[in-house]
Design a protein that fits this description.
Distance between the termini: 23 Å
Structural class: alpha+beta
Number of domains: 1
Number of helices: 2
Number of strands: 2
Helix content: 10-25%
Order of helices and strands: EEHH
Length: 108
């Protein structure tokens, strides 16, 4: 377990498009970032930005990106509770400095 200062995206609005687009109802979101100290367990996936495809990772994981994973419904089940009117926080956090995090490459 490690405590890190991260930025969390809180949704205030999640709206699906009225028409299908390649089998998906494209999401548009509104919300804001909040800084918080969060505890992360061992085994948490960290996407480093010092790699050749860092810009692609950023584009796909950014919550307000028009073509990102949130827009294409990848995170829907993690955002909308079965009961209730509020949204869960976006499950991707921004870490603005690495604070000496030790990590190992992910191999599938």
């Amino acid at each position: 377990m490690i405590d890190l200062q991260v930025d969390r995206f809180d949704l205030t609005e999640l709206k699906g498009s009225p028409r299908l687009n390649q089998g998906h109802y494209i999401n548009s979101v509104k919300g804001n970032f909040t800084s918080e100290k969060k505890n992360f367990p061992s085994g948490t996936v960290v996407v480093r930005m010092d790699q050749p495809l860092a810009n692609v990772c950023t584009y796909l994981l950014e919550p307000e990106s028009g073509e990102g994973l949130l827009a294409w419904n990848f995170f829907d089940r993690y955002l909308v509770p079965q009961w209730g009117m509020l949204y869960y926080p976006y499950p991707v956090y921004k870490l603005m400095n690495n604070n000496g995090i030790k990590s190992v490459p992910y191999c599938n």
